[in-house]
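Help needed: design a sequence for this.
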């Protein structure tokens, strides 16, 4: 199969990978130390629709996360395949989340939100929201050696929410709407929640891959999350700035 055809079926399955201890081959860095509050991201979207598909994870088949939202791009677009800006990660003064509550692992408060990309072959395809207790966890992760193929910078403890393909909208346009995805909680490099947990996430403003290649301001994903049931009672809003160091890739096939 082609790389593009694999993304929808891969994004849920590969989300488990970076939770393991990683070997490192490259040294990442940061560019920018801005305290600017945000950026303008794309035009208003013009198409709506529902997407749902089946994905294979392990030995069985399960329903992929469902989405309801808007985009201006076709699901079959293959002409835009950029590499993300892995060096860009503004820090400082951007505590942009008020998500708090309880998890099966105890209380969790995320006052700090960022997002990176998930892709393969050095590219970026879908965003992953990364919710942390404070900035120091991200600073510490960036200070370590990391690489795109070793999972990017991995802060702990953290709640990570990869967003599904949304019909290809993340490439040249953004996506807004409500969707059901899976969240994974990582407390240490050795521990990750088994199987993840369903999360309702609403995106009210988003950015695209194109807007994160050479950003003039700070690209963002803005929205809210609700996670309930099975020991979870977590909710709140986020305004997640782009941090390329969080971007990670997996094998295309």
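Sure. Designed sequence:
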């Amino acid at each position: 199969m082609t790389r593009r055809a694999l993304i929808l079926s891969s994004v849920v399955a590969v989300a488990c990978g970076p939770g393991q201890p990683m070997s490192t081959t490259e040294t990442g860095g940061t560019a920018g130390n801005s305290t600017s509050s945000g950026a303008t991201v794309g035009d208003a979207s013009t198409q709506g629709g529902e997407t749902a598909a089946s994905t294979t994870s392990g030995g069985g088949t399960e329903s992929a996360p469902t989405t309801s939202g808007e985009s201006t791009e076709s699901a079959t677009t293959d002409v835009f395949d950029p590499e993300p800006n892995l060096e860009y990660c503004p820090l400082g003064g951007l505590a942009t989340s008020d998500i708090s509550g309880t998890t099966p692992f105890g209380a969790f408060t995320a006052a700090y939100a960022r997002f990176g990309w998930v892709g393969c072959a050095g590219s970026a395809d879908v965003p992953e929201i990364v919710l942390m207790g404070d900035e120091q966890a991200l600073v510490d992760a960036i200070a370590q050696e990391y690489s795109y193929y070793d999972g990017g910078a991995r802060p702990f403890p953290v709640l990570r929410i990869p967003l599904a393909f949304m019909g290809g909208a993340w490439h040249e346009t953004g996506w807004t709407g409500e969707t059901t995805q899976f969240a994974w909680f990582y407390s240490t490099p050795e521990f990750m929640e088994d199987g993840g947990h369903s999360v309702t996430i609403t995106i009210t403003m988003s950015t695209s891959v194109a807007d994160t290649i050479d950003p003039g301001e700070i690209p963002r994903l803005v929205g809210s999350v609700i996670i309930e049931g099975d020991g979870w009672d977590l909710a709140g809003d986020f305004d997640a700035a782009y941090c390329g160091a969080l971007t990670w890739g997996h094998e295309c096939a």
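The radius of gyration is 16 Å.
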